[in-house]
Amino acid sequence: xxxxxxxxxxxxxxxxxxxxxxxxxxxxxxxxxxxxxxxxxxxxxxxxxxxxxxxxxxxxxxxxxxxxxxxxxxxxxxxxxxxxxxxxxxxxxxxxxxxxxxxxxxxxxxxxxxx
Length: 115
Known about the structure:
Number of domains: 1
Number of helices: 7
């Protein structure tokens, strides 16, 4: 299924049902704040003191979603993935996230963010 700005929220809800999307942002299709929240959500999952395999699985599902957005998304959706990576770049426990990168997310990370 092709992912566009018009379908990304629906796709995100399907991929990550536990991730809470602000209803007002969804109603107005405000994808940038939503994708920034996704980045913070991923980061927060690594900071729980009881970080466990459920958190790791949720992070993996989120990164699979971003991977699918790069594979099936248009240029606007790929820009959103880039935005999410900018948010993840600020995460203190980034190494716990990076191990879940698929090949396209990793390539995007290496191109724009790797130090």
